[in-house]
Amino acid sequence: MDVLTLARARVLASLFDSASVVILGDVMVDQFVVGHVDRISPEAPVPVVLFDHEEYRAGGAANVARNVRALGGQVRLLGVVGSDDSGERLKRELTASGIGTSDLVEDPARPTTRKLRVVTDRNQQVARVDYENDAEVAGDVERVLAGRLASLAETARVIVVSDYLKGVVTKRLVQLAIDAARKRAIPVLVDPKIPHIDYYAGATLITPNHHEAEIATHVRVRTDDEAATSARIFQERTSCDRVLITRGERGMCLVDGTTTLHLPAIGREVSDVTGAGDTVIGTLALALAAGATTAEAAELANHAASVVVARFGPATLSTEELLKTFQEDDRR
């Protein structure tokens, strides 16, 4: 596997705007209550946060969609929201990012997933409150999602499954995505959660982080060799074609058949890893839709992740920012 050059990265980036990605997954609102801490509460050993401001971001599968769109790709987002203020806020956030909301199915029986984080003005998280119903969708809601997924798969170049264990990713829907993709010879990418590992059989590429890989394979992932071993076992267990283990500051490990590629992390100051996995799979999907090889897509995703981890909360980057990382990379 050859290392991606800046010239080739530019060619691929120029094709992003003609690439289409369909995303199925758990959409959510990420809410941040930001304040200053200078004392401990007299009532309990907890910090007192003096409120300054709050921010809202589209998170989960919606953040994957934001990353695809920010890089210029065309995206359709399938998910479930409740009949509530959070659902309306999420739709506004998506619309502001240039993402349509017509494929979000409303379920009055469940709230829109919302993660409320209390953080300090130094980006230190104090507490998190989750509002959710993580029971798997069924009945009419699942049927509507299945119908829309089957329709959208007919024109997609790549399908992404973004699984956050919040109920949208059912075994039936994943297999429908994989079967539809196989008929059209397009890839299906999965950002997994281990309790659903048996759902993903037949996927093209799965992207566990190193903690998830360790749990699924019972192999410690510290060295490159251990990462490669874990990825191969993960590949066999899930019957998928390829595995990309994201390893944080140790980079990534891609196993594609009998070939292994280790990608060192791009050295940057890390501010917040929230949503970095969304950027990875969104960039992978868009690159593959634009005609990249798996190795090239992994290189692009590795560079994209190096940008967003330096930013607060679920973040995106532009094509120009992505290409700039290749110019700055001393390995070039």
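That was protein one. Protein two is written in the same sequence-then-structure order:
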Amino acid sequence: MTNLELVLNMLAETSTTEISKVKKPQTFPENRKVARKGGSVAKVARNKIEKETGKKVISRKNYLSRPQDKKLLNK
């Protein structure tokens, strides 16, 4: 993930949290609606960034480096 992808992810999570505080969902379907609204905030931001820059925001990069090969212990 790139820094921009991480920021948009944090925007979606924070938006969802703030919407949840206001809406106070009680059931799973209500929580799902709140999560979708929070995600749509980040989607609008992503689309705007892509439109302004002419570049895609989503990448195939993995933000974390790959772990070293782990040796399994034989029992």
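The helical segments are 3-23, 28-53. Keep this in mind for the problem set.
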